[in-house]
Amino acid sequence: MLCQHPQSPSLKKLKSILHKYNLPELTAIPNEQHTYRSWKKKITIAARLYVTSSTYQEVEERSTLLLFAGINPEHLQELFPSTIDPPHLRKAIEIKAQLLTGTYLTNSRICKISKTTQDSHCSACGPVEETVVHMVGECSRYHDERSALLSKFPEAVTAGLDTLSSAQRYLSTTKLILLGTAGHDKIEIADFHKITLQYLIDIHHIRLL
Q1: How far is the C-alpha of 47 from the C-alpha of 50, rounded, in Å?
Q2: Domain range list for the chain
Q3: Is 152 within 8 Å of 38 (Cβ atoms)?
Q4: How far apart are CA 145 and CA 122, in angstroms?
Q5: For 140-165, b where at least 16 C-beta lie within 10 A, e where not — what string?
Q6: What is the DSSP letter of 180?
Q7: Integer angstrom CA distances of residue 39 from 32, 144, 162
Q8: pTM score, two decimals?
Q9: Do the Cβ atoms of 14 and 5 come closer than 8 Å?
Q10: Contact predicate 2/11, CB 8 Å
Q11: pLDDT tens digits for range 147-190
Q12: Tens digit of pLDDT for each residue in 59-78?
């Protein structure tokens, strides 16, 4: 029936869905000889592959890690601890992963992926876009928590932040908090994880208030 109306909106929509999920062309489907169960399995696999590939693509294109080009890959394993104590910081690992991959739902990200008129601005700082860098390294809402965190780092680690321009200081602060001292011996890795993960869970909870 649909093939009799090649320009129909329904047929165009069906073709676009088949193409999107890398499924057989409409004209080839009758030759596939699938049962309901085998066709359902094929669609399920195709959908999973699509989600996986689109996720990797988004991480590649939108990842906060793009801001940190040049970090030694050997040090990436230091960004996350293998075990966390106390257990409540396990949620912070999830938050940190989202912040690093650009999937944390800041207002800026929600605005990009939502079909609604979501405001991308920070609710605390006025006409400033709420990005990962703004949230972690700049937002005035978390000033006290951020200052308390930075005071726990050795002076050798934070030296020079105050001499940078505002934009560079916010970016450098974000890099320090999310990437820390990976590859350096200024602070113990375990201590770094403990204090930064606590900061991330704190600002996450404050943001939800």
Answers
A1: 5
A2: 64-208
A3: no
A4: 17
A5: ebbeebbeebbebbeeebbeebeeee
A6: T
A7: 9, 56, 61
A8: 0.60
A9: no
A10: yes
A11: 999 988 878 778 788 888 888 888 888 888 887 654 445 556 66
A12: 555 555 555 555 555 555 55
